[in-house]
Specification:
The chain has 223 residues and is of the alpha+beta class. The protein has one domain (45-214). It contains 4 helices and 5 strands; from the N terminus they run ααβββββαα. A 5-stranded mixed sheet has the order 3-1-2-4-5, with helices on one face. The termini are far apart.
Length: 223
């Protein structure tokens, strides 16, 4: 008598399925960080382009104002914050200097979430050390390649980095959100990136930080 063959279909065992799932999970864990870094790098490129446009706007502003640079925050002589003062040079409208340029402009870093930009302010910061706490200075007087003019902040309306105010918290507000790096517009109007570990306050900020603010520095202040 001829025996009937086994007609049951072959399939994956539970162990084989678990192995496949484990391999897929491993591949995802390897690829996702790389994709995240690549996405952030693309945003960093846009951010650098924003800073370059801001640098050109500062240059054109100085050309129209006897080589005087804008000041970080409003003063009697210049009743507009720096980003409001240069906004017309990048075709950005503002509300009479009260509100900032808003999210969809060169004053908003694409790495920043909308909820970090309150009141229409910019996500970038002006180095107030350069303009010596609201005193007008000529642009050519501080074109130092190692001292930054504008950089990324953490948002939330912190549009200046200043050591003027006693006990100021502003030194905690460098962004470091581009893969632990920050983009900077330097005094020579070039745009370059520094890693957190490469930043030095005395060299790149332009001077010493007051004792009250040293504890707030990120990275830490080294005398």
């Amino acid at each position: 008598m001829r025996r009937l063959g086994n007609n049951s279909k072959s399939g994956f065992t539970l162990i084989e399925l678990l192995v496949v799932v484990s391999i897929i999970a491993l591949l995802i864990s390897i690829l996702l960080p790389a994709l995240s870094r690549a996405r952030e790098q693309a945003k960093s490129v846009v951010c650098m382009a924003n800073l370059k446009q801001q640098g050109l706007a500062v240059y054109y502003y100085a050309e129209d104002n006897d080589d005087f640079a804008p000041t970080g925050y409003p003063t009697i002589d210049q009743p507009r914050a720096w980003y409001v003062a240069i906004a017309p040079y990048v075709d950005v409208e503002t509300a009479d200097g009260v509100d900032g340029p808003g999210r969809e402009s060169v004053f908003h870093c694409p790495s920043m979430k909308d909820d970090t930009l309150s009141g229409g302010y910019t996500t970038y910061m002006w180095n107030e050390f350069l303009t010596r706490s609201a005193n007008h200075v000529r642009l050519n007087s501080y074109r130092e390649a190692d001292i930054f003019m504008i950089t990324d902040s953490t948002g939330l309306g912190y549009y200046i980095l200043t050591d003027t105010y006693s006990g100021s918290q502003t030194f905690a507000n460098l962004g470091w959100h581009h893969n632990d790096s920050n983009n900077f517009l330097w005094g020579d109007l070039a745009v370059r990136t520094l890693k957190r570990s490469e930043f030095n306050w005395q060299r790149h900020y332009g001077g010493e930080v007051s004792a009250l603010n040293q504890a707030n520095c990120d990275p830490p202040y080294v005398p």
